[in-house]
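Per-residue structure
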Amino acid sequence: MVEYGNANLIKKKEKRNPPLVVFGIAFGEVSHLDYQPNSKLKTPQNDLLVFFRQMAVMLKSGVPLSQALELLAENMTNKEFGANILDVSKRLGSGEELSSSLSNYPKIFTPIMIGLIEAGEAGGILSPVLERLASLIEARAKIKSQITGALIYPVAILVLALTISLALLIFIVPTFDEMFKSMGAELPGLTAFMLLLSRIVTSPQFLIISPIAVFIGFYLFNMTYSTQSGRRSIDNLVLKIPLFGDLILKSELASMSDTLSTLINSGISIVEALEKCINASSNEIIKIALRRSISLVTQGQELSTSLETAKVIPRLLISMIKIGEETGALSFMLENLSNFYKREVEEAVTVLTKAMEPLVISVVAGIVGTIVIALYLPMFSLITEMG
């Protein structure tokens, strides 16, 4: 635990015990000094959350910026990230601004983060901006966690259903196949199809072709999604999926409103704020709407008017932004919209979970039930004929 003290705090250099060398191998405490700065390093969001929050606390307590960075670097559990922060501290000592120093690590610090820190430096409100950044990261992480949590259960059940189905087709159905051949009876269409499917799954060709087909499928998807038109088509399709599409849209709107509110409240222009929202969005349809909005705002239109042409943006959001513009409380209104859509996401997750549970169970029961019925249909037919 780091004790921050006050502005006059003098950092004591940590003594590092020499490593113990055994058979030519050094054992000792690992610190950020053992790592070199890495601009390509990606840092977990939780580490960024802790970094910004602790930075805000230390600056509020009067600890000088460069010293605060050194203290954080020394005490980070993620030593690679700590090495990068120590490099930022050294850059500050050379006369660079914090925002400029952090921009050397684009894989870690996004344009939104850099823009907010620039605004905080210009307005002398760096500590509140860092705290707001931490809240922004926390809110995004919570939304992502909620969506992931809503999808884990149905995906897990579907994987289980696929595993059970393959197990039946590989180990159980072939024994029935041999029995039906010895009976010489005419098989129902469903049974014949299931036996054919079992033969395909157990064939050597299937073991070779199926991994290749999966690889080609992933490759084609990535190739398609790497193009703007491909992303637009896929993201548009995602938004139209029942229940799930509505959840994705609301999560995007919550993040967009939260980001816009934070940026505008920090003194960043609407056009620049919209540009940074484009970089933060993960949906191409939302990005297209924001790009069109930037073009119209640049021509002199209000933000609310510029969003009216976008079919993906709900009328509620546009109306609330318009009220915020008319009352001079746009940032406050966007914050309220963000909170509203965050609650909507929570409710959508609940609805999706409740809807998916019986649906997935029905699908699993249907798949397994169909295989079982297909196997026993010939026996029922034989019993009927004997009767």
Notes: The longest strand covers residues 20-22. Strands lie at 20-22, 25-27. The radius of gyration is 29 Å.
